[in-house]
Amino acid sequence: MLVRVGQEVQEVPRRLAVGGADAQRPPTPDHAWARPPSLSDGVVRLEPLEARFGPELAGVVLDPDIVRFTRLPTRPGEGFVEGWLSRYERGWEDGSRAGFAIVADDGNDDGALLGFMALIRIDWDALEAEVGYLLAPAARGRGLAGRALELLSRWALDALGLVRLEAWIDTENGASLRVAERAGYTREGVRRSTHFKAGRRVDMAIYSLLAGELA
Ligand SMILES: CC(C)(COP(=O)(O)OP(=O)(O)OC[C@H]1O[C@@H](n2cnc3c(N)ncnc32)[C@H](O)[C@@H]1OP(=O)(O)O)[C@@H](O)C(=O)NCCC(=O)NCCS
């Protein structure tokens, strides 16, 4: 479908067009969405997630901390990562989610995947999204998730025009609680005994970042 953006006429996926039939969609055929960006702060770069990251992610999702603290399956079966990545690739078409690979951008960039950073759920009617992230074990301990979360959050609030971002974090996940705080998120409270995934209930701290709160 052809849509006018400023002086330009752009081709955008039909589902992103203003007035489309779907409830969940970006409200405008915005440049920020129609062309997934590569975001960088000179140390880390966020690149739109795509199938080529599959082999690296397949190893990473087995890490015990990722199994414990994320909603990824406890025993990811054959084909899980491919299906997961294809849902994120579809997200760039239907506006339901926005997934990025975290890679190094410090001059020693060998293109290796450091982690995953995403708007795992976007509600375009409410202009809200939930963030999710993880790092490969070898990339931890250097503050990279905080940098990547700040990049994602700035893009989501400034370029996409979302108003509220949320992070749900197990209260026992000390590193992730700090990551959210370092990225400017405010702790709102704790949802006690929240159903997390099969067989697990945990106390979840809810953090949020609102438009205008990033310096
Ligand atoms: C959470 C995660 C992304 C953080 O990675 P990271 O950027 O390497 O985090 P760091 O090791 O640099 O730690 C970040 C901060 O937490 C602190 N921290 C680390 N472990 C901690 C712990 N167990 N308790 C309290 N604070 C801790 C660090 O000192 C650092 O503090 P600072 O910002 O004041 O310097 C990573 O540990 C991970 O991938 N975990 C598994 C998946 C996961 O939990 N995802 C988040 C789901 S909500």
Describe the structure.
This protein is an alpha+beta fold and 215 residues long. It has a single domain (36-210), classed as Aminopeptidase, CATH 3.40.630.30. It contains 6 helices and 10 strands, in the order E-E-H-E-E-H-H-H-E-E-E-H-E-H-E-E. It has helices at residues 31-34, 54-60, 64-69, 80-94, 144-159, 174-182, and strands spanning 2-5, 8-11, 39-40, 44-48, 98-104, 113-123, 128-135, 164-170, 186-197, 200-210. Helix 2 packs across helix 4 (80-94). The longest helix is centred in the last third of the chain and has 16 residues, at 144-159. It starts with a strand and ends in a 5-residue tail after the last strand. The model is unreliable at 1-23 (pLDDT under 50). Residues 65-66, 69-70, 133-135, 140-146, 169, 173-176, 178-179, 182 line the site of coenzyme A. Coenzyme A (COA) binds at residues 65-66, 69-70, 133-135, 140-146, 169, 173-176, 178-179, 182.
Short characterization:
27% of the residues lie in helices and 33% in strands. It has 6 helices and 10 strands; from the N terminus they run E-E-H-E-E-H-H-H-E-E-E-H-E-H-E-E.
Entry keywords:
33% strand; alpha+beta; binds coenzyme A; 215 residues; two-stranded antiparallel ribbon; 8-stranded mixed beta sheet; 10 strands
